[in-house]
Write a structure and sequence with these properties.
492 residues, mainly alpha, AhpD-like, 2 domains, 3-stranded antiparallel β-sheet, 54% helix, globular, oxidoreductase, oxidoreductase activity, acting on peroxide as acceptor
Length: 492
């Protein structure tokens, strides 16, 4: 289902992907298949999520207490595989959207819409269109950015940069927003807006990375007709991931191979722990390994090995739906690798020079009371969350693996930790996992089920959702670090 301004006859020329929610032009010879799963996720069997929800009364309590929609939506159902984290997530999101803060309630939801539109995330757009109207938003604003006050439109530049290339944000961007006469933003308002933008960019990564299905809502909503498109997944077809291939998941195909991969990963984790105890790597070597990992990330191309035809062909067939394009400017602006080939290097963001713990937290908490505590709790929760298991193995210390996932995301955004050996990333994260991470983090709208299925084949869906939570929070923190550093430089 998708909101849009197209007529029924026009929509007949296009197909809607249930995984990435993009509209693609119809191929005359395309073969239709049925969706692989129903329920909250296109990637995770419904019974696994349902079982988690039925046994955990805590989830129902959290929804009643903190859900802004008043119901157990698909995102919450999937996140409920990790109830501890879910509480931190819902509390912080509720605070951003509903509690006392610098911004009016309708503006908060409109900013969420603007953020989700950068990644063409119709799921989040639809959700916040509803919330925008419920909180008294002016319906005319939903016709597009040209109908909103100039003050909100002025957020377009920072929205675009935060979503795709946050390292380009400077104190000049901040100054432009806070010194625009009658359309100016106060610093508390701007911090609130930045937190919302970063939150919804990152949440779009979770939506696509976890294959969150559209909510099942019939007919017409808020004056927009929901156009029903045949129930199949174009991503699966485009990537040769049709039912014939998908059915292999039900037998023993690849089990022996993936068991070998699991054992090898655990052995590498054990060896890295021993090496760390035996001796320290020099600072020069640490720097070299970061630069090497940063450069290697250039060659991790989203979609590689997953498409049955060149990625550029796939890209050319994508169009923006009306409900997305109306909320963004410069739609062609997207992620570019921080360390681009053949270009002068941008200065690396040394995490020790501007940390969340020592700098970002205090600034955001001073300008937008208490949000710093809630975000800090959420970051710590996902980073430290562990059940000491890996697939069928118990009593496993997964610290090195979690740190590698978090730091690899920051590496792609040009953020370096001086005390981290980036050689661990190469040893712990296989190629298919790196492709998945880069896609979910930088180009989430391109994520497919095949990418999700391709890595850690012996791990549980709950463990893969944990990966997505780590990627989401690492991305949000990276965006906030760049934005808050720019605000700090403006203040000094």
């Amino acid at each position: 289902m998708n909101r849009g301004g197209s007529s029924a006859s026009a929509s007949a020329n296009y197909l809607l992907c249930t995984n990435c929610r993009k509209v693609l032009r119809k191929d005359k010879r395309i073969r239709m298949s049925q969706p692989l799963t129903r329920g909250p996720s296109a990637f995770i069997p419904e019974k696994e999520v349902v079982q988690a929800n039925t046994v955990d009364e805590r989830t129902n309590f959290l929804v009643e207490e903190y859900s802004t929609s008043g119901r157990l939506d698909n995102i919450t159902q999937v996140m409920s595989l990790h109830t501890q984290y879910l509480e931190s997530f819902l509390r912080s999101q509720f605070y951003m959207l509903r509690m006392d803060g610098p911004l009016p309630l309708p503006d908060r939801h409109y900013i969420a819409i603007m953020a989700a539109a950068r990644h063409q995330c119709s799921y989040l757009i639809n959700m916040h269109v509803d919330e925008f109207l419920k909180t008294g938003g002016i319906a005319e604003w939903l016709n597009g950015l040209e109908y909103v006050p100039q003050r909100l439109r002025n957020l377009n530049e920072i929205n675009k940069l935060l979503a795709h290339r946050p390292w380009l944000i400077t104190k000049e961007h901040i100054q432009k927003l806070v010194k625009t006469g009658e359309n100016n933003w106060s610093l508390p308002e701007l911090v609130h807006a930045v937190v919302l933008l970063a939150h919804y960019h990152a949440l779009a990564s979770f939506v696509f990375g976890s294959g969150i299905n559209p909510e099942r809502e019939p007919g017409i909503s808020n004056g927009f007709r929901l156009i029903s498109v045949n129930s199949f997944c174009v991503c699966d077809l485009a990537n040769d991931n049709n039912i014939d291939n998908a059915s292999l998941a039900g037998n023993n195909f690849g089990i022996v191979e993936s068991l070998g991969e699991l054992e090898a990963l655990m052995e590498r984790m054990k060896r890295l722990q021993e090496d760390r105890e035996d001796g320290e790597t020099t600072c020069e070597e640490m720097t070299t390994r970061f630069e090497q990992e940063k450069k290697e990330s250039l060659f991790v191309v989203p979609g590689e090995t997953f498409h049955s035809f060149p990625h550029s062909d796939f890209e050319d067939d994508m169009i923006l739906t009306a409900d997305v394009s109306r909320y963004i400017e410069d739609p062609g602006f997207g992620y570019e690798d921080f360390a681009r080939r053949g270009e002068e290097h941008l200065p690396t963001f040394r995490a020790q020079d501007y940390t969340w713990e020592n700098h970002g937290f205090s600034l955001v908490n001073r300008l937008y009371s208490d949000i710093g505590h809630l975000l800090d709790e959420k970051f710590r929760m996902v980073y430290n969350l562990t059940y000491n298991t890996m697939a069928t193995h118990e009593d496993v210390d997964t610290t090195t693996l979690r740190r590698a996932l978090f730091n690899y995301v920051h590496c792609m955004f040009g953020i370096r930790y001086d005390d981290y050996d980036y050689g661990e990333v190469n040893q712990l994260l296989e190629r298919s996992l790196k492709v998945y991470i880069k896609t979910v983090t930088c180009y989430p709208e391109r994520t497919t089920k095949r990418m999700y299925d391709s890595y850690w084949r012996q791990f549980t869906h709950s463990e893969k959702v944990h990966v997505n939570l780590l990627l989401m929070e690492a991305r949000m923190q990276a965006e906030l670090l760049y934005a808050l550093r720019a605000i700090t430089r403006h203040l000094t």
